[in-house]
Amino acid sequence: MPELPEVETIRQGLAEQLAGSRIRAVQLRRRDLRVPVPRGLASAIAGQTVEAVRRRAKYLLFDIGKHTLISHLGMTGSWTFASSKNYVKHDHLSFQLTDGRELVFNDPRRFGLLTLVDRGEEATSPWIRDLGVEPLSPEFTPDALQRLAKGRTVPVKNFLMDQRVVVGIGNIYASEILHRARIRPSRRVGRISLSGWGEIVESTREILRRAIGQGGTTLRNYRAVDGESGRFKNQLMVYDRANLPCFTCSVEISARAIGGRSTYWCKVCQK
Ligand SMILES: [Zn+2]
Predict the structure, then answer these.
(1) Are 154 and 253 in a shared domain?
(2) Is 150 left (phi over 0), alpha (psi -120 to 50) or beta?
(3) Is residue 191 domain-resident?
(4) Using CB atoms within 10 A of its CB, is residue 234 exposed (0-12), middle (13-18) or buried (19+)?
(5) For residue 64, is it within any domain?
(6) Which residue in the list 34, 56, 58, 241 is annotated as catalytic?
(7) Which has the closest alpha carbon to 70: 54, 81, 46?
(8) E strand or H helix at 65
(9) 259 pLDDT more than 90
């Protein structure tokens, strides 16, 4: 499942390719995604111009005319430019642009989301209103995290993956962030010091920025809008490296399920 760096890479590609483009027609082939695509979606955005493509958490926000289209990739969703009129299976929605290009949303497992709100009103939508802080925003601070963690016993890895606390961090980046911060994934959040949270904040920013710079991480099917795979896979320090030597201390990387998700760490480097 894509995490923040993958969605941000897709956003950058879409913004570059799409900003200022006019949608001539919209074809909706399947409405039964995670929730049904609204019936009026196609008529609301046909003939309108895409003014911006923004992101909140792992949601892509297309500002189109008087509306904002909210899209989530779910497990297997993708946005790509089609080179011909030959649709492939699972192409559920397409925008035909006035310049002849065509943008297609494909989603084999159909956990993705396509919905519409009034322009700029996404913050109050049920998908977005309860989301936590953006990890690359100034509000993501050691103090804020310590406040949210106070008195709680949840393992720090689960805490970082809780979208009501901080958004966009999933299983891959949580392991990588905690390795860089030298903190064990099982540490109880209520017992992490302010300087520990400082390490976590700094590591989060560093890992996410580097991953965005590498176009994200492709493990299976994630691709950027231009079809490129993410290159951050080559920089993973612990994720999916069970029993391989730690790059810092050469001791074997440990792996076990925490909160039902595979978790990787170095028992020497991380305390
Ligand atoms: Zn180590």
Answers:
(1) yes
(2) beta
(3) yes
(4) exposed
(5) yes
(6) 58
(7) 54
(8) none
(9) no
> For residue 194, what are the contacts with CB-CB under 8 A and spacing of at least 6?
142, 143, 146
- Is-catalytic flag, 261? yes
- Give me the long-range contacts of 100-105 (CB less than 8 A, separation at least 24): 101/17, 101/21, 103/14, 103/17, 103/18, 103/79, 104/79, 104/80, 105/71, 105/77, 105/78, 105/79
User: Do 148 and 261 share a structural domain?
Assistant: yes
Distance 249 CA to ligand 1 centre (A): 4
Dist CA 63 CA 118 (whole Å): 9
Counting the structural domains of the chain, the total is 2
Q: Quick one: which of 78, 82, 88, 87 has its CA closest to 114?
A: 78
Distance 261 CA to ligand 1 centre (A): 21
Active site residue 138: no
115 with 79: CB under 8 angstroms?
no
Whichever domain contains 191, its CATH number is 1.10.8.50
Query: What is the band of 169 on the pLDDT scale with cuts at 50, 70, 90?
Result: very high
The answer to whether residues 98 and 11 belong to one domain is: yes
Cα dist from 128 to 5, 54, 66, whole Å = 18, 13, 19
Say how far apart CA 43 and CA 25 lie, in whole Å.
9
Q: Hey, what amino acid is at 200?
A: I
**Structural domain span for residue 168:** 142-265
pLDDT at 162: 97
pLDDT tens digits, one per residue of 61-107: 999 999 999 999 999 999 998 766 677 888 899 999 999 999 999 99
Residue 271 belongs to some domain of the structure:
no
